[in-house]
Specification:
By secondary structure, this protein is mostly helical. The protein is about 70% helix and about 0% strand.
């Protein structure tokens, strides 16, 4: 059950809202009751989004996700369905409790929208993951995480010159690009397994991406435009005094080079470089949210300790992946 909730993505999404909470507090003491309910709620909603995807993809994951616990037999589909219903009921009660203790209607609306898009991504009748809107759903869900974290401690989204809106905009664009990256993976696996046939004289760029609908070439351009375009916002926000110099340098020095390298590898050889490309894109996204976490931590503790916590957060992600998706013969990228 724990694996079906895909804990590594819940884990690595946490820096987005934890960093926002720390920055929104600005040294103040939080209301611990409301904060505790918020933490339980946001983790539950993130888990629901991942669990719903595991449940609804249990048939196609025989190819795309063979380590899905509903594929391996570790979890029964009937049990999973009941658990997913229970988690949604629990999320509803938690949201009501959060509304009662905070009376923050904007926060509740933001979290409800995130909950909706988390389900709409994979659950019928919308199932946006099979449409060209899939990356948008992916991006809006991630971008709402720091906004929710901010609102639980700071009622104004325009505080600190609108810092959290600016960061959420950057995260939205990069997450959109990452959403397209995940569609490329499915396309290449489908091509390799024979589910789709390249009849264009091996012109891969003319293939339609699986679950996205755009041609490979068009999707590549859109991916590059959004993922790299996110970093164009950094100097703009620095010039407007929204981001300070240290935060801007961290964003440009850490995730941006990895994103640029990923784009180069994609253009050079989309098939042979698929595995390392996906790793670079995922790591660049992770570094964006961990940069926010480090920035928030450094506002309350020494930067050295903040850096160690960020390293711990980074190390935790592959360790959880190792448990949920065992590397080796069952690796999703074993072919590469």
């Amino acid at each position: 059950m724990w694996k079906a909730n895909v804990p590594h993505w819940v884990w690595i999404g946490a820096p987005a809202w934890i960093g926002a909470v720390l920055l929104g507090l600005d040294g103040r003491t939080p209301d611990w009751v409301s904060l505790a309910i918020f933490i339980a709620t946001v983790i539950t909603i993130q888990s629901i989004a991942e669990f719903a995807n595991s449940y609804t993809d249990r048939e196609e994951d025989r190819l795309y996700g063979p380590t899905n616990t509903l594929v391996t037999g570790e979890l029964n589909a009937g049990t999973a369905r009941k658990a997913l219903i229970f988690q949604n009921i629990m999320a509803a009660f938690l949201l009501i409790a959060l509304l009662v203790v905070t009376l923050n209607y904007i926060l509740i609306a933001v979290m409800a929208v995130g909950w909706f898009f988390g389900l709409a991504y994979s659950v019928l009748p919308l199932r946006l993951k099979e449409t060209p809107y899939a990356p948008f759903d992916h991006a809006i869900a991630f971008a709402l995480l720091p906004i929710a974290g901010w609102l639980i401690v700071e009622p104004s989204l325009m505080a600190k010159n609108g810092f959290i809106i600016a960061f959420a905009s950057l995260l939205f664009l990069h997450s959109y690009g990452l959403g397209i990256t995940l569609k490329f993976r499915k396309t290449l696996l489908a091509l390799d397994s024979g589910l789709i046939d390249n009849k264009q004289n091996n012109k891969l760029h003319n293939l339609s991406t699986v679950g996205f609908g755009l041609k490979f070439k068009t999707a590549m351009y859109l991916e590059a435009l959004t993922a790299l375009g996110a970093f164009i916002l950094v100097p703009i926000f620095w010039h407007l005094d929204v981001f300070d110099a240290s935060f801007s340098i961290a964003l440009l020095a850490l995730p941006m080079p990895l994103t640029a390298l990923a784009m180069i590898l994609r253009m050079k050889d989309p098939i042979r470089n698929s595995s390392i490309y996906k790793i670079f894109m995922t790591l660049s996204w992770i570094l964006i949210v961990v940069t926010l976490l480090g920035y928030g931590l450094a506002s309350v503790i020494p930067w050295g300790l903040a850096s160690l916590i960020c390293v711990f957060c980074l190390v935790g992600f592959p360790l959880l992946v190792r448990i949920v998706h065992p590397w080796g013969a069952k690796s999703l990228n074993a072919r590469y």
